[in-house]
Design goal:
It contains 9 helices and 21 strands. It has helices spanning about 10, 45-50, 115-130, 155-165, 210-220, 220-240, 275-285, 295-305, 355-375; strands at about 1-5, 20, 25-30, 35, 55-60, 70-75, 75-80, 85-90, 110, 140-150, 170-175, 175-180, 185-190, 190-205, 255, 260-270, 290-295, 315-320, 325-330, 335-340, 340-350.
């Protein structure tokens, strides 16, 4: 049913259980008709889509053999898109908006990482040696950053801050995982599909002139272009096998965010035959933007060297509809919240020519997006 137009900020103030927002749609879920872990292995995406509901939210672990993926069917979903508000479920389940009283917060304290900086740098060195021996072409090495606070972290406050700073990203909250990802894994509307590969990162400039210089340097940097090519080419090959009219620019474009800029290749086309959006996710995940090349070798190296469990970081996150349409991003620029503790993540693609110290600094740039929202 349709309803009076509601502002997404007003909906967020009502503290929905789950949240998804992109530049074109906002979805807020209240209550829970069903919540389950679809399990592990190749069948987890098929099991996840076995539910039949107008809108279902999902967040999957990066590692297909790890438990902890979540599928949630809310009792009420509020959808804001194309200037209209649509209610899927019983509107009486939506709570009244609380009185906004910003809580006093102390600055969170750093509580450690699974790998200290010097060991993370050593891990990059090991990967570069494997690349030199031609055992692998690219490995995305991630690190975590734990925080502790005297007060519980408020995910809705964090979402509001992320929405203000990153309105063009995919903002999400699903059972303690909150973030603003710039990377679209797959969007499906009827037979139309879209995907965006991001790989290659540079800082933003202090002035417009500096910004242009940094962007142009990245567009001509051999290391950044190699990293991007290794990420984008396999995605294009997979999509082209199921969408013969697939189109994409001949060279990467710049995607500029508030704190960083990325090399981006957008893909668009139409499926030759209909598939559920989660079938497309199963084809694509993990992309080389979060795993590596070749996939199996890179995943093995990640398990050996990261010294942490990624959980749902870098996994598919988003929503799908009963007709198989949906929008799924890669869970980047995110944090796991557990009461007064938070765990943030950032990862970089390591390729031939990577400089360990530069990679460490790049993770700090990426972590800054969430750190500013949690303070």
């Amino acid at each position: 049913m349709t309803a009076d137009q509601l502002d997404p900020a007003e909906i967020l103030a009502r503290h929905p259980r789950v949240w998804w927002a992109s530049p074109t749609i906002t979805l807020a879920g209240f209550g829970s008709l069903a919540i389950f872990d679809p399990g592990t292995g190749d069948g987890r995406f098929e099991r996840a889509r076995a539910v039949s509901a107008p809108v279902t939210f999902a967040s999957f672990t990066f590692d297909g053999e790890a438990s902890g993926s979540l599928v949630i069917v809310p009792e009420l979903v509020v959808e804001v898109a194309d200037g209209e508000t649509t209610l899927h479920g019983d509107s009486s389940l939506m709570p009244p908006a609380p009185v906004a009283v910003p809580p006093e917060r102390d600055r969170p304290r750093f509580a450690g990482s699974s790998l200290p900086d010097h060991l993370w740098l050593e891990a990059i060195g090991s990967i570069l040696e494997m690349i030199e021996r031609r055992e692998v072409e690219k490995v995305v090495l991630a690190r975590d950053h734990a925080l502790w606070s005297k007060q519980r972290f408020d995910p809705h406050r964090i979402l509001a801050r992320l929405s203000d700073r990153f309105p063009d990203c995919f903002r999400f909250l699903i059972e303690g995982l909150v973030g603003a990802s710039p990377e679209l894994l797959i969007r499906k509307t009827a037979l139309a599909i879209e995907s965006v590969t991001l790989a290659g990162t540079a800082a933003r400039g202090l002035t417009n002139e500096d910004d242009e210089i940094l962007g142009k340097e990245m567009l001509s940097d051999p290391k950044a272009l190699t990293e991007h090519r290794l990420a984008a080419a396999p995605v294009g090959a997979i999509l082209r096998s199921i969408a013969s009219d697939l189109s994409h620019p001949a060279s990467p474009e710049l995607m500029r965010l508030a704190n960083v800029q990325h090399l981006a290749t957008p893909f668009s086309g139409h499926l030759d035959s209909d598939e559920h959006v989660l079938e497309l996710v199963a084809r694509l995940h993990p992309t080389p933007a979060v795993g590596g090349v070749p996939t199996a070798a890179a995943e093995g190296i990640i398990k050996d060297l990261e010294a942490m469990d990624r959980n749902r970081y870098a996994g598919p996150v988003g929503y799908f509809r009963a007709n198989g349409d949906g929008e799924i991003a890669i869970a980047l620029r995110c944090a796991e919240l557990s009461g007064a503790r938070a765990r943030l993540f950032a990862g970089n693609g390591i390729v031939e020519g990577s400089i360990p110290e530069d990679e460490l600094e790049e993770t700090r740039l990426k972590l800054a997006a969430m750190l500013s929202a949690l303070e």
